[in-house]
């Protein structure tokens, strides 16, 4: 029984981390891509399509990076801050 509860908890923990990464990726890539496209292109007629394309590319890059880098970075932080 205990082992089954632990597996359920671990599964929920992993799901929460993945959901957080996906949502945080949407927010951060949206803000950063919006800002950089606005600075570099300005608010011209091409702004929205360029921003959406940039956002999509950034999102596809950042989600795997978050999922791969985050656990390693967290482990390093845990070692430094006791």
Could you outline the blueprint of secondary structure elements for this entry?
Elements: H1 2-41, H2 47-80
Nearest-angstrom radius of gyration?
18 Å
Largest sheet: none
Tally of alpha and pi helices: 2
Shape: elongated
- Strand composition percent: under 5%
Helices and strands, in order, run as HH
Task: Describe, in plain words, how this protein is organized in 3D.
The chain is mainly α. It is 90% helix and 0% strand. The chain has helices spanning 2-41, 47-80.
Give a quick set of tags describing it.
single chain, 82 residues, mainly alpha
Summed up, what is this model?
The chain contains 2 helices and no strands. The chain is mostly helical.
